[in-house]
Amino acid sequence: MIKPRTAPGTLELLPTEQIAFQRMLDVIRSGYERFGFLPIETPAYELTDVLLTKTGGETERQVYFVQSTGSLDKAAAQEDPGLPELALRFDLTVPLARYVAEHEHRLTFPFRRYQMQRVYRGERPQRGRYREFYQCDIDIIGKDGLSPRHDAECPAVIHTIFTDLDIGAFTIQLNNRKLMRGFFEDLGITEAQQQVTVLREIDKIDKRGPEAVRDTLTGEAYGLAADVVQTLLDLVGLRSTSHDDALAILDRVLAASAGSPVLATGVAELREVLTVLRDLGVPESDYCLNLSIARGLDYYTGTVYETTLDEHPEIGSVCSGGRYDDLAGQYTKSRLPGVGMSIGLTRLFWQLREAGLVGTAESTVQVLVPQLDEAYLPQCLALATDLRQGGINTEVVLDGGKLGKQLKYADRAGIRFVAIVGEQEVAADTVTIKDLRRQDQFTVAREEAVRSLRVELAQPLGLPHDGSDED
Amino acid sequence: MIKPRTAPGTLELLPTEQIAFQRMLDVIRSGYERFGFLPIETPAYELTDVLLTKTGGETERQVYFVQSTGSLDKAAAQEDPGLPELALRFDLTVPLARYVAEHEHRLTFPFRRYQMQRVYRGERPQRGRYREFYQCDIDIIGKDGLSPRHDAECPAVIHTIFTDLDIGAFTIQLNNRKLMRGFFEDLGITEAQQQVTVLREIDKIDKRGPEAVRDTLTGEAYGLAADVVQTLLDLVGLRSTSHDDALAILDRVLAASAGSPVLATGVAELREVLTVLRDLGVPESDYCLNLSIARGLDYYTGTVYETTLDEHPEIGSVCSGGRYDDLAGQYTKSRLPGVGMSIGLTRLFWQLREAGLVGTAESTVQVLVPQLDEAYLPQCLALATDLRQGGINTEVVLDGGKLGKQLKYADRAGIRFVAIVGEQEVAADTVTIKDLRRQDQFTVAREEAVRSLRVELAQPLGLPHDGSDED
């Protein structure tokens, strides 16, 4: 006998949790589709040479390789077999780049796609960090160019989704890499690599605090002057409190600039993003300018985003992304600029569950038809068929047992309604409907059962029952 | 520059095809949920010792193993590294067995689950055979026992799904392994292994024809008497033409029996399945008894199913399954009998596409808001937000360009409606709506735009337009 167990670093859910997870996936998908993004899926594995063109050693060490038994045997027979031919994707961005480059001539640009699939990273397992996890990405890919207006669409759809997820207030935070780059140049930090490493240090402000970051930047490794560091920390301390405040901050930053054209471009892009966000009706309380956001990845070149839950800042960013100049330079000569955001749903779900924000979900099963007496099974089955044809998710108890036990099962499973067909009901051609949430019960004519349950299911639970169907 | 390409044996779709595929997934999920099945997902990979407990060499040769770089290095350093620690699932049945055994005490039995995920097999790539493909499974798992009534639920939900998929007439074919086993015993073929191999030969009737199978069975390898083979072929030639005919065939088989109790049990189980199928309202034209169905797998012990498309018999079975005595004997001492069916969606989709049955799907995008003049972009964005809040999937053109080009894009992408906000519309506070399918156009008051488009979208395309909103 083998002990049944999942591999380390994977999250497997019981059905009630899976339903809650699936509802989040559905909300995300619905939001992405509402904004006109098209679905794609890519294979879980890519050819290793295609997947690992761009990445350095850090990523490669986290990659999972895939081998059939045949190639294992071949590899064992060789002295230096090299890397296996196939590898599991570690994000959805490299597969997107490969997809767009491969199918470039059959896609319309700007290409707006969403993709919600699992990715794989050989990370050290720890609480809330998984080796297999869902990413739910949107990206808009232009050909040769892409208006900064698109940079407003990503936070707008994310706003819709986080509103619909109903997990409390959140703030989408915006910054722009060009603004930061210009500011650096104004301060005499002109070398790109130094800007990147300084940005990385600044990125740690939330974790290390400004004092520690100041010490690092004025210390031996960077050797920046104290006033330069102060100017920098003043900038990254800026957070807008309203839409107009954001615009005012941008004016001040531009006015204080020594005239860097790249800073001016960054400011202009952020202004356009803010304008389109407002025109799209995104409430100003739900977004802000936060000039400390740098994003760890080096390939962002314009707008960058992070999203935090106002009541759970400890969770950190739950949805991030940004603008990049060139999606697929490793696969095609076409210049494909893009902008995107990503929700790491497995981690978010785990965090929400830890924070007590994932409630016990109602079951996908809406009605249970219990079995009181085998003699009435045909009537129960016919009722179930009518309910199902009426679009109601229905389970019939086929094995029988005591009614109390069947009701208890429905209650524990989160099934809200029980539709009883027993001796009395068959004689009177009725159905008795129990609402386990409201602890309410009523009897309707058999032919009214579907309509009646559809009305009940369409009513939000908070509303009082109108009693017209009462027994 | 690396040539962007997918790994061999994978199916990757363009967005329009992906939408069609996703609609099929949605229909299947909706059907499974309508019948009260609960969702689960399992990790793509399992621990190798957990995954490969039961399987023989045939399966192992098709398994994909998963290794991080670290474990590759370790494996290379050893003389005989053995199998890697992780392996990709090759079906959803072994993960289900592991899941049920692992979470046994937190599940309610009968446990009714659906699972729609990709599985991996290192098969030789060939047309329509994929190494990565979706399986969409339902299973009902009992503890200690499970009424044969459940054996009717699987074909009933499959009936609903194939009706909703709208890919033409289909027939769900039923048989029972006990009936077959009893029949064999009556004929003096009492050894289980011989029954299995003879069943395998019989399973080839559709491919090889009855004559070739007869020759094999009377030949050296089996040495069965000609009259025994004839009786057997007469049996497996039986197909019912109606519900009553199916019951009559069962009566005849039982009457002709030499008294095998196992045959009688098989007949009784099939009778119960047929009764429940009728009580569930499944039309008798959509199922039949087909005593040639054996299913290749040895672990089925009762009811077995295959599903064929009436107009495309060449496709073979598109949904199969059956009853098994013991799901998870390798993981638990609990006896867990079950019954299930599986749709191999990737292969089915490919076959339907080859047969011309996958049409050009309407886009998930329902309305395109083109950009005629940058000056009216705020109005376009506000309209898009209203439409989206009204549940309508809407894309706004942010980059501009000629209207003709934007309309052409909508048409090619399968977007049905275009909602135009230009100079005239802004002045009159209206929206002009083009229906690209009906080649129709009308103008509505701005505040009526959402309601009007919702009405249009709710109407099936076949109905004539009522003209009340005409310009």
UniProtKB/TrEMBL annotation, chains A, B:
Q: Which PROSITE patterns match?
A: AA_TRNA_LIGASE_II (PS50862)
Q: Which GO terms describe its cellular component?
A: cytoplasm
Q: Which GO terms describe its biological process?
A: histidyl-tRNA aminoacylation
The protein's predominant localisation is cytoplasm
Aminoacyl-tRNA synthetase keyword on record: yes
EC code(s) of this entry: 6.1.1.21
Q: Where is the Aminoacyl-transfer RNA synthetases class-II family profile domain?
A: 33-370
Q: Which residues bind L-histidine?
A: 91-93, 121, 135, 139, 295, 299-300
Q: Does the keyword Ligase apply?
A: yes
Description of how the protein assembles with itself and partners: Homodimer.
Q: Which NCBIfam families match?
A: hisS
* Family according to the record: Belongs to the class-II aminoacyl-tRNA synthetase family.
Can you say what this protein is called?
A: Histidine--tRNA ligase
Q: Which organism is it from?
A: Ornithinimicrobium ciconiae
